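Budget justification note: compute hours in this period were largely spent on complex prediction jobs such as the one shown. Inputs:
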Amino acid sequence: MRTLKVALLGCGVVGTEVARIMTTHAADLAARIGAPVELAGVAVRRANRPRPGIADELITTDATELVKRDDIDVVIEVIGGIEPARSLILTAFDHGASVVSANKALLAADGSALHAAAASAGADLYYEAAVAGAIPLLRPLRESLAGDKVNRVLGIVNGTTNFILDKMDSTGAGYSEALEEATALGYAEADPTADVEGFDAAAKAAILAGIAFHTRVTAADVFREGLTEVTAADIASAKAMNNIVKLLAICERSADGSSVTARVHPAMIPRTHPLASVRGAYNAVFVESEAAGQLMFYGPGAGGAPTASAVLGDLVAVCRNKLAGSTGPGESAYAQLTVSPMDGVVTRYHVSLDVADKAGVLAQVATVFAEHGVSIDTVRQQGREGDASLVVVTHRATDAALSATVSALRNLDNVRGVASIMRVEGE
Amino acid sequence: MRTLKVALLGCGVVGTEVARIMTTHAADLAARIGAPVELAGVAVRRANRPRPGIADELITTDATELVKRDDIDVVIEVIGGIEPARSLILTAFDHGASVVSANKALLAADGSALHAAAASAGADLYYEAAVAGAIPLLRPLRESLAGDKVNRVLGIVNGTTNFILDKMDSTGAGYSEALEEATALGYAEADPTADVEGFDAAAKAAILAGIAFHTRVTAADVFREGLTEVTAADIASAKAMNNIVKLLAICERSADGSSVTARVHPAMIPRTHPLASVRGAYNAVFVESEAAGQLMFYGPGAGGAPTASAVLGDLVAVCRNKLAGSTGPGESAYAQLTVSPMDGVVTRYHVSLDVADKAGVLAQVATVFAEHGVSIDTVRQQGREGDASLVVVTHRATDAALSATVSALRNLDNVRGVASIMRVEGE
Ligand SMILES: NC(=O)c1ccc[n+]([C@@H]2O[C@H](COP(=O)([O-])OP(=O)(O)OC[C@H]3O[C@@H](n4cnc5c(N)ncnc54)[C@H](OP(=O)(O)O)[C@@H]3O)[C@@H](O)[C@H]2O)c1
Ligand SMILES: NC(=O)c1ccc[n+]([C@@H]2O[C@H](COP(=O)([O-])OP(=O)(O)OC[C@H]3O[C@@H](n4cnc5c(N)ncnc54)[C@H](OP(=O)(O)O)[C@@H]3O)[C@@H](O)[C@H]2O)c1
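Corresponding output:
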């Protein structure tokens, strides 16, 4: 029986765990695959770091040379980022290897080209670990729901921002303070931009929307708003309404079925919603489909071992396919639905205004909402010396209508400022 | 491009929905499979019932003749029960067809023989719908977690009993009253035995344990206790401890890893546990594995359309394999772990005793627990005229130690009876 050879690109948080489990669980992997798998090389950037458990002669800093080796059956890419990951994966396909990757940024930017390269090479490209870490999500969407029609995917797919929002909610801390704690505890990276500005979640939303709707969706198609503008006042206001603020990724099919949208932004959801209780760095994703109804998937969204679990699940699948001389399902983009911009998205809004504390202001504000066809659900008024705040929660309206309303509100003399606008979801 | 032909065996709750979706979503299924699929025949028991949406000439009462047709690529078995389902599936394999089934009873009784027949025919046997309805669970366990080591599967896998327990909890109703309501609302069948005695959940536990532990487990290996003995007093006692009673299926690897157990029984879990909030006919399953940590899967556990969603996901996979000339992963039972009986299972217990209201009874009872090595966590004593009740909650102990303790308690003069024994889980 032949041994399958695996090249590991990257040996950081995830790669170290992949290598460890491949070694410690070699017998189980062999039994499940039907042939032994062997780590044939490990590419890193810095040659001279200690890599416990990995034989020195496996380490190389020349990743390109490693993926060009013709004895490599599967390449695991856990370097991250666009380049050199992209070129390395394409080279791997050129040399007949299948690829397992955890790289959401790359898949969301250029997934179709990579899938095309895999298909023309007769190779597999699997990336379960790229979305929601350990949680089996892409395989269920792609395979278990292959006979169903998914209408909506809604979830918490970034642990760093969930940790920050959780802190703000439980301690009343402001955004900067909560971010500092997340950084100190290792939940946020030194440069937290990708997480807090929503880039990471947007990449995941693009991948989810693409698979759920059988349509090409890239990160550029995803509306994205991070949580840097979320204030302690927003969190408190959410609390007052028995809501909680979460950074959500939402992929939806339009009511008429002809288009889809994908967006990432902070949103208020009821505290009774199952996503409200997702704590710390956990992830959870709801999938709504026509026949299955509402499904939820929950688990660790990141971390070395959880992410390695997803990578190794893909490794087993890809190796089985290799031995069978087949490939798994590739990209499915036959539906070619239009990916619509944010304007047409329909949801509810929480709008917080600083207004002059005068008679008639509420009537003025209400008129502006009405003129733009945005119907008001509730208004809460809080008076202070000379000025006041108005918190308006709307019924469902399009993003375009809400934006026009807000522009008009800014032009009212009695509106001193729009303190915050937040979407209200999950009801 | 050739058309794949499907024989549908059974056209009841599930089969009707399978046929409907195959017709209404034919174009999507064809695009996802890569070839059209056609319903080539539908076997039922009663020929002369209206079958809306299904052409009369497709209906037959001769299922055997249908599965013997050599143009059938895939057989979907949604008849249920052991025979004739078993023989029909074996005949299907003999004639080269792959099989998709929703039949937990059959798979739990005889899964290995069916898998062996599929393997020797070079055909697929898929049955995602057999456990937890629409929830993608078997595919994630078998494939997504193929590189991980599952240590525990714990869940609510029977909607009927969950509905009954939910009613008892929310209204204070007794078991019979809650069952009556479940029957009236269509949540329980006319003969509810399979559900309320835990047979249905035990079949699912056997299937889950087999896949999770790569070991053959049949329904006969599963310890099974239904909920017919659960009283309103048990529910109230659970409430008093801020717990809730659920019928759980639990599959566990022993601490030393050499054996596994599978069991189904009512248990108290904390109200703060995520399974506590699983309402009505929903199902939810926790999976704990070494690398991934704790995952949860949640969704509709039954119903025509949800179950059909799972069946059709399998249909797409099996059809793709057919076209590729390959087969998916078959039975994986290489680990051959011992399936241990209940004696060695370690958990906590809630023991409710009717005792004489005399001085020294508590000391006597406590001595019996101590003599059997079962350590007591809390005791609650309630006095009534002349007699009293004692509710003892233990620390973790083996089932054998608890059973021996209870036998000894029954022999105490001052113990008038053991009102109930319930396991305490999820802490
Ligand atoms: N961490 C998580 O929880 C998580 C979760 C889900 C998905 N992911 C994804 O998994 C991937 C890896 O993440 P990570 O957290 O493991 O990253 P990491 O800890 O930063 O590790 C990156 C690894 O890549 C190596 N590397 C960098 N540039 C290289 C080059 N040009 N050639 C060869 N090797 C190079 C680094 O080498 P040195 O060791 O020499 O620095 C390091 O071993 C990313 O795509 C990430 O988005 C991570
Ligand atoms: N219902 C659920 O929510 C659910 C959920 C998960 C799994 N399942 C599983 O799915 C399977 C089907 O369940 P179901 O609820 O759809 O059952 P059902 O409503 O009782 O339907 C059974 C079907 O099988 C047909 N049938 C019975 N004996 C037959 C025979 N000898 N030859 C040919 N056809 C025969 C019946 O014909 P007639 O129509 O003429 O009576 C009927 O169409 C079972 O294995 C069940 O455990 C069901």
